[in-house]
Design brief:
This protein is an all-alpha fold. It has one domain.
């Protein structure tokens, strides 16, 4: 198949976004636990 830089970058970005989303979810959970703790 023909190598497409666009496909490559989209794939990289997708991976990065998934990781970022996971991270953001963890942070949000931690923040809500902290908030509950301080209530």
């Amino acid at each position: 198949g023909e190598f497409s830089a666009e496909d490559y970058y989209v794939g990289e970005w997708q991976e990065y976004r998934d990781e970022y989303t996971e991270l953001a979810t963890d942070v949000r959970e931690m923040a809500s636990k902290e908030a509950n703790f301080w209530k």
